[in-house]
Design brief:
The complex is a heterodimer of chains A (about 190) and B (about 650). By secondary structure, chain A is α/β, with parallel strands linked by helices. Chain A contains six helices and seven strands, in the order ααβββαβαβαββα. In chain A, the strands form two sheets. Chain A has a five-stranded mixed sheet with strand order 5-4-3-6-7. In chain A, strands 1-2 form a two-stranded antiparallel sheet. In chain A, a hairpin with a 2-residue loop joins β1 and β2. Among the domains of chain B are: about 1-165, no CATH class; about 520-615, no CATH class. Chain B has 20 helices and ten strands. Chain B has helices at about 1-30, 35, 40-60, 70-75, 80-85, 90-115, 120-145, 165-195, 200-230, 245-270, 270-295, 310-330, 345-375, 385-405, 420-445, 450-475, 480-485, 490-515, 620-635, 640-650, and strands spanning about 515-525, 525-530, 535-545, 550-560, 560-565, 570-575, 580-585, 585, 590-605, 605-615. In chain B, strands 2, 3, 4, 5, 6 and 7 form a six-stranded antiparallel sheet that branches. The longest helix of chain B is centred in the N-terminal third of the chain and has 32 residues, at about 200-230. Classes of the chains: A alpha/beta (about 190), B alpha+beta (about 650). The interface of A and B includes residues 19 and 29 of A.
């Protein structure tokens, strides 16, 4: 009797295996939902921002390099007139600029200066303190840029402290960007 | 107006699905014939309303109604008509609507064909399908409504993703979904039978044609997708172990196992719990595939829908459907009982071994697909799993499975003495070994891997010929036609499908072993030699398409000075999306494809050019097609129709025989 009961118990246990495996699967899928598979951690976090000297958009005589902003917390925002997501991101950048929390430096990537200036004029405002032009995309390689838009937060010592991939929106500005900026500005 | 009609039709479809999911189920539990009888009208109503909704969406695309968000985001006034129709299922919302349309179609078909089945079983099976479809319709209505309006209307649409603007894309999703979703029939029958507590040969016989039909569609769908990747993505590959490809391949693997397991259950009455589990697993993997693609948890070229709300909904749905069916399985399976016993060497044991290999292969694919996600969730780092892993685990699992394809059809049920089996197969083995060494030697170089590939392919062919020969020569009829007619269509179907596998393996081995790839820069007038072919770059010319601008190259291919083909690969820039697309030019042939595509322009007269010679590559898809045709033969078997009346009688008598 007991032996049969035991065997029956073992059998039921075996029948539960598919359900247990499936429950485990659901757990991982659930957790996976809240992660972005495209978000690859940047190797540059907590490393000095790579140096560059690039011409400023709309002012052929001026050049910009990160050393100019030493002592300030600032943002470097990668965009291009060819980039659809940048168009989506633009209103958020405009409202961020209105807060006057940090200067935003635009990084016009693989673009034609005329097309870039025209695009910027059509967006209902220019959130950038200035924009540099990286025509052949060489500096972008130093920054590990693999898509636009991307945004870097750079601290007073010129160290990259954060990188946001994809368009910024109200939520990511409020929950991610501003807390970091406040922390760095103290 | 039309989108609103579609919206109302969707809501009516949902109520029909709920009626279908609840009334017959309650009726079956209470043995209330009146309630059970509601299943068929509800199934037909559901199909009509979903079809109406789908038609409304299609009409909005055809009419360029850019006041519908979905149309504005996925179409354009310059888009040709056939792609506007295909754009109906080119978006996330549209493809889920297609899913429910296919689901309603299968449900309607089951309703039509189930009149001869025991009433309670048919009512429960239809009820399960209704519940699944109700979940999907809720998903459409709450998270993915294709009829949302855009006010004011957009002036023009953003255009369909250029990757999808291809004849293959018109057919690939409907056929693939028909396959995916078709497994819901086997699933519904399995759950219904579990609820009834009666899993017998009759249940297996009803499930078989439905499962085989779904499998045929899935085979064709995967085949089309692979063919599409080959000529559209512009890299000349035909399978990338991409998560979305894996998502369709996993149900195929377990579906193949299910077909074989159902055969054993029908003929021998054994493997019952295993068959039920496979039926649940196969449809679960179809649902999981939908989740993986639609939730964006895994990066892939296909992941164009990333929205946590949708992910949460599908995951909850997945957990409910699969979790409850596995719970019912756990609860009811102990009552199933064992069937006839069999020897360690018998057709049963070989089919079981094949089943295990297929399921382990599926588990390996699943592991490779989800491993990056699992590591990420455990904060163990970001990785990606690529072809080296899949190739390393897949070939060793596949080789014994392919070997068994040759043996099992010749083995006897219950007990198959090894000496007898060996005698039957000596001739086939000898021919396969000699041919698999001779072929690579004749072509020029010999390696173990090539020989293994050829060996498995030739082995299957030789064993199939042996099996057919033995059966036909043993038939009592005198004339060849009489001998041929003496065997059922499903028997021919099986051998045909196995020959399809052989053709597939042959094609893969040929391409992997002997393909020639040349990536070069060529100026106008220069030539490049690839194998026996000489390819001359004549120049490029501008072209204007309906919704794109581009350049078309001109290449002349010759062999020994004789012209073979002129080829025009293109580079297109789609106006609305500003995306560039590479359209390779392919000269198809039974023994080789010549593949030419344009890379980047280097200067006015020089381009990067990719020239591939792919021997026997079309056999890969031809093999899949032969497999599907084999499946078609199996469904066409007269047995399924003749036995229907008998099945009803035996069930009325309370038990079903094991033939």
């Amino acid at each position: 009797m007991t032996e049969i009961a035991q065997r029956k118990g073992a059998g039921t246990l075996r029948l539960a295996i598919p359900l247990v495996v499936f429950a485990l699967l659901v757990f991982f899928l659930w957790r996976g939902l809240w992660r972005d598979p495209r978000e690859v951690p940047s190797a540059l976090i907590d490393k000095p921002a790579p140096d560059f000297t690039l011409p400023v958009l709309g002012d052929a005589t001026r050049k910009f390099s990160p050393a100019e902003y030493r002592g300030k917390v600032w943002l470097l925002n990668v965009w291009g007139s060819w980039c659809i997501s940048c168009q989506v991101e633009h209103p958020s950048l405009l409202s961020l600029a209105k807060m006057n929390a940090v200067p935003i430096v635009g990084f016009d990537w693989k673009d034609k200066p005329e097309a870039a200036a025209k695009w910027l004029a059509q967006q209902g405002g220019d959130p950038y303190a200035l924009s540099v032009t990286d025509l052949d995309g060489r500096v972008a390689i130093d920054y590990g840029v693999y898509g636009a838009p991307e945004t870097f937060v750079i601290d007073r010592q010129g160290v990259i402290r954060m990188k946001h991939i994809g368009p910024l929106d109200e939520a990511s500005i409020k929950d991610k960007l501003l807390p970091m900026i406040r922390k760095l500005s103290q | 107006m039309i989108p609103e009609i579609g919206q109302i039709a969707l809501i009516l479809a949902l109520t029909s699905a709920l009626a279908l999911g609840i009334l017959p189920m309650v009726g079956a539990a209470r043995n209330d014939a009146m309630l059970m009888r509601q299943s068929r009208p509800a199934a037909f109503a559901q199909f009509l309303f979903v079809a109406l909704a789908f038609g409304c969406l299609g009409a909005s695309f055809v009419a360029n109604d850019f006041s519908v968000v979905n149309v504005a985001s996925n179409s354009n006034s310059e888009l040709p008509l056939h792609y506007r129709i295909a754009a109906t299922w080119g978006s996330h919302e549209g493809s889920i609507l297609l899913w429910t349309l296919v689901m309603s179609g299968w449900t309607g078909a089951v309703a039509l064909k189930s009149r001869t089945l025991p009433r309670a079983l048919a009512a429960r099976a239809l009820g399960v399908m209704g519940l699944i479809n109700a979940g999907l319709l809720l998903f459409v209505l709450f998270t993915s409504n294709p009829f949302l309006r855009l006010l004011p209307a957009a002036a023009d649409g953003r255009d369909l993703n250029p990757l999808l603007q291809d004849p293959g894309m018109v057919f690939h999703p409907p056929i693939l979904y028909t396959g995916y979703v078709g497994f819901s029939v086997a699933f519904a029958f399995a759950v219904a039978a579990l609820l009834e507590g009666r899993l017998d040969a009759a249940w297996a016989r009803w499930s078989r044609p439905w499962t085989t039909a779904a499998w045929c569609f899935l085979t064709c769908g995967i085949c089309l997708g692979s063919f599409w990747a080959y000529y559209v993505l512009g890299w000349g590959g035909w399978w990338f172990w991409d998560p979305v490809e894996n998502a369709s391949f996993m149900p195929w693997l377990t579906g193949t196992a299910l077909i074989h397991s159902l055969a054993v259950t029908e003929k021998r009455g054994t493997f019952k719990s295993w068959t039920v589990l496979l039926a649940i697993m196969t449809f679960s993997l179809s649902l999981l595939g939908t989740f993986l693609v639609r939730s964006g948890v895994i990066t892939s070229v296909h992941a164009f829908a990333t929205d946590p709300a949708r992910g949460v909904f599908i995951l909850a749905f997945l957990a409910l459907v699969i979790g409850s069916s596995l719970t019912i399985f756990m609860w009811r399976a102990p009552r199933i009982g064992l069937g006839a016993s069999f020897d360690a060497v018998s057709r049963e044991s070989m089919l079981l071994a094949n089943n295990v290999l297929l399921v382990v292969a599926m588990a390996a694919v699943l592991l490779g697909t989800l491993y990056p996600l699992v590591l990420d969730v455990m904060d163990a780092g970001k990785i990606s799993v690529g072809p080296p892993y899949f190739n390393a685990v897949f070939y060793p699992l596949l080789a014994p499975a392919l070997f068994l394809i040759g043996v099992a059809p010749l083995a006897r049920w219950q007990k198959s003495p090894i000496p007898e089996l060996a005698t039957r197969l000596t001739w086939a083995a000898a021919v396969a070994v000699v041919a698999s060494i001779a072929v690579p030697l004749a072509i020029g170089d010999w390696t173990l891997l090539k020989t293994t590939g050829f060996l498995l392919s030739f082995w299957i062919i030789a064993a199939v010929i042996t099996a057919v020969w033995m059966r036909l020569s043993a038939a009592p009829q005198k004339s060849i036609a009489g001998k041929l007619r003496a065997n059922p269509a499903s028997w021919y179907g099986m051998h045909l499908a196995h020959l399809g596998i052989a053709a597939f393996v042959f094609g893969v081995t040929m391409v992997k072993s002997y393909e020639i790839e040349k990536d070069v820069r060529l100026s106008f007038g220069q030539t490049i030699d690839a194998g026996p072919y000489r390819v001359e770059f004549k120049g490029v010319a501008d072209e204007v398409g309906p919704n794109y601008d581009g350049v078309a190259g001109a290449f002349a291919v010759t062999r020994d000075g004789k012209p073979v083909a002129t080829m025009q690969p293109e580079k297109r820039l789609y106006r609305a999306t500003q995306q560039t697309m590479t359209e390779a030019a392919i000269d198809h042939g039974l023994t080789r494809d010549i593949y030419v595509s344009l890379g980047n322009m280097i200067d006015d007269k020089t381009w990067e050019v990719r020239v591939h010679i792919k021997p026997f590559v079309n056999w890969i898809w031809l093999g899949c097609l032969i497999m599907a045709i084999g499946g078609g033969f199996a469904i066409a078997d007269r047995r399924y129709r003749l036995r229907k009346s008998r099945a009803t009688e035996t069930i009325a008598g309370g038990y079903a025989p094991i033939p």
